[in-house]
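step=encode ok
step=design start
structure_in=
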């Protein structure tokens, strides 16, 4: 495959590109879903192709083909160069490209990287996977009052070969998987659901041992009972109070109010689809207070087993840890070589594409909150009045990542340092820097969980990215809760 990839690069250079790179990508995907003790979906797919990028001036061109012959790959490189040349003729088209000084420096390497795993998920029989899902939906459905029980499992196996005109030759093999389940109870006037583990499930760059370790069967009865209990629980009261967020809900809070906001292409105005732009301005880097002194956020693609981990990004930049917020101050961004070159920051290794036929773009790696020295139980014990919320149910945030409102599946009233009544339909709202500025307690290392988000949407044409969000429980003071609409 390196010969095919090299042919694409040579084709782009021969057609006049100043820089070129190409990727051959082979992706195998398996999805199984079950509903009420019956397998509903079983799909297996495989894709292969080559995608080539070419740079002329500050304009990119991209072309992809599913044909992996030498001739087709060379033609893909030539077409990418033609597109770059045509783009350079359009006034203002260089806005989404590097500064006149070029791409941020990255040393070329010849390397291979493979994600570690104990049991390859595709080596596990379909029967074992289906039986697991049927068993947990059966357990949930057996609880009186549960109207719908669903579960699913997904596997991705991805091989990549990357070559650049600067001398990169990198091969990678990533194995990813995860699973989830949901119990839904329907009442006279509303519907309640409980999900495990989290609304999207849990996913990582690991083998099937990840799924086996989730203990879906051991949690199926509990979440089913909670879904029914929520139908009769009191509504989360409206007002201003202290809020404790579980780590899964905090992972989504990080994703929406930090992860998308720190993408450098959004900050520069190159990207606005789906998640909008950003309230951040590069002139504030190193000075803007993003949150309290307890807020320490990193983007770390080297975390073992996390969904946003890899060896090299799709520009050949090595995976690395980058400080994003340090002691509450905004200090870093998610960048690619072109945006980093324009902004004058080091290349962060955060550019990836959704398959061979999509242009690589800035994506989150593992953007997460570092642990503190508290714990969930300590936070509850030290809270006189508040609400503990967990597991996201809905989210809304403006196109600058400032004003937000989130709803959770479940909440508990906290009174006098004790967890008391279950609450239904808990919601909270805030403004990003003010909300993070109110954080006064952060869970410890023993509660640090690497949540995986396998469905982050960005770009046009749409791309789905795999991102990770390490998180712990945390407490926020004086938060507006119980907001409807």
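sequence_out=
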């Amino acid at each position: 495959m390196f010969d095919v990839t090299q042919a694409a690069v040579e084709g782009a250079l021969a057609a006049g590109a100043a820089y070129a790179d190409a990727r051959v990508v082979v992706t195998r995907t398996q999805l199984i879903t079950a509903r009420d003790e019956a397998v509903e979906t079983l799909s297996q797919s495989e894709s292969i192709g080559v995608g080539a990028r070419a740079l002329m001036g500050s304009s990119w061109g991209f072309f992809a083909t599913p044909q992996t012959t030498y001739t087709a790959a060379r033609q893909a490189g030539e077409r990418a160069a033609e597109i770059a040349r045509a783009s350079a003729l359009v006034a203002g088209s260089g806005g989404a490209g590097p500064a006149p000084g070029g791409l941020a420096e990255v040393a070329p390497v010849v390397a291979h990287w493979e994600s570690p795993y104990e049991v390859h998920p595709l080596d596990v029989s379909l029967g074992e996977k289906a039986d697991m899902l049927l068993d947990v939906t059966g357990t949930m459905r057996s609880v009186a009052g549960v109207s719908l029980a669903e579960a699913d499992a997904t596997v991705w196996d991805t091989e990549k070969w990357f070559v650049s005109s600067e001398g990169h030759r990198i091969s990678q093999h990533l194995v990813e998987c995860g699973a989830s389940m949901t119990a839904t109870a329907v009442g006279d006037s509303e519907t309640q659901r409980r999900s495990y583990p989290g609304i999207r499930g849990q996913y990582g760059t690991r083998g099937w041992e990840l799924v086996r370790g989730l203990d879906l069967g051991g949690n199926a009865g509990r979440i089913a009972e909670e879904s029914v209990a929520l139908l009769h629980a009191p509504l989360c009261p409206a007002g201003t109070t202290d809020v404790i967020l579980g780590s899964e809900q905090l992972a989504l809070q990080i994703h929406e109010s930090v992860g998308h906001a720190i993408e450098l292409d959004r900050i520069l105005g190159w990207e606005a689809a789906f998640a909008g732009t950003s309230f951040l301005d590069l002139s504030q880097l190193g000075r803007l207070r993003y949150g309290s002194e307890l807020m320490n956020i990193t983007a770390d693609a080297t975390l073992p087993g996390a969904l946003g981990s890899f060896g090299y990004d799709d520009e050949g930049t090595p995976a690395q840890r980058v400080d994003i917020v340090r002691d509450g101050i905004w200090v870093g961004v998610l960048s690619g070589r072109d945006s980093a070159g324009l902004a004058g920051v080091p290349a962060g290794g955060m550019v990836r594409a959704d398959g061979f036929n999509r242009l690589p773009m800035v994506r989150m790696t593992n953007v997460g909150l570092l642990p503190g020295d508290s714990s969930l139980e300590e936070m509850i014990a030290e809270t006189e009045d508040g609400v503990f919320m967990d597991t996201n149910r809905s989210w809304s945030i403006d196109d600058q990542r400032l004003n937000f409102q989130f709803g959770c599946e479940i909440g508990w009233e906290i009174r006098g340092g004790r967890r008391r009544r279950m609450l239904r339909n808990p919601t909270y709202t805030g403004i990003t820097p003010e909300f993070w500025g109110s954080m006064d307690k952060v869970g410890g290392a023993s509660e640090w969980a690497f949540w995986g988000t396998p469905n982050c949407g960005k770009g046009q044409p749409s791309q789905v990215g795999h991102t990770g969000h390490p998180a712990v429980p945390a407490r926020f003071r004086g938060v507006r809760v119980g907001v409807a609409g």
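step=design ok
step=annotate ok -> The longest strand covers residues 38-56.
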